[in-house]
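hey can u check if this looks right to u? its 263 residues, i copy pasted from the old doc so theres a chance i mangled smth
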Amino acid sequence: MTAYYRAPYTALILAAGLATALPVRNNAGIAKPNVARNSIDSIASPSIISSVSPMPYSLEEYFLKNPDFAQNQARDQILLLDSLVSRASYIFHGKVQKIEEREIELQGSQGIVKAPVSDITFDVMDVLKGTPQPSLVVTVSRVLRLEPLVGGEVLWYLGPKASTGLQAPVGGYSGDFHIIPNERGKLVVRQGGNRGLWNSENPLWSSSNERELARQYLLDRQVPIARADRIIIIGDERCCSELLPLDFILAATHTKVTASNQK
């Protein structure tokens, strides 16, 4: 298996039971009230911060000074696929072409704070929500360690761009999916595992029409009928498995976006 991700991703994707590598603290698979809001200056609500310790500096400075806390907050956001789709401003599958590291200046309470960021250039392979484009540059904070390596593929459910110019997957790691090459086709997994994308209380298919739309999407992508039928059955289960076919998650996401657009 090719290692396309920086630590701690490498250790995660080498293990089949990678959902146990990071704790899942919300058994229902639904985000906690204080959810991450997709940028270094809004990863957690001020109420969470104030309960930890008083601070004479801004939220941006807090995360720069406490990267472990920021990462833990991102890991705690276990979102349903429905939530990822509804909250994302842009959803794409892409291959990393270039990563450039730099610093940006953020206005803190006591002056300018320098924040380490990465500009990641993607070749866009599929766009499921948003305007199609051949390439995309996403600027992410290095505090959360979201960046893959050059040559790696991701499926990102991106939140809106912050005023700082930073952008990140919805819910931190929850909208950050990694593509793993496999002899039977590409597999997809998010850091912390796929469990929580749907469950018995929140089934994947809201109707038989959604299921059929997903199947038709696969057929339109020239997936053989027998394989399309096997893939669609995955969504009939009461909860999702640790590793999912990329074709399946693309089909399910496309269906959710289509259903949302029709409302």
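The two ends are 42 Å apart (CA to CA).
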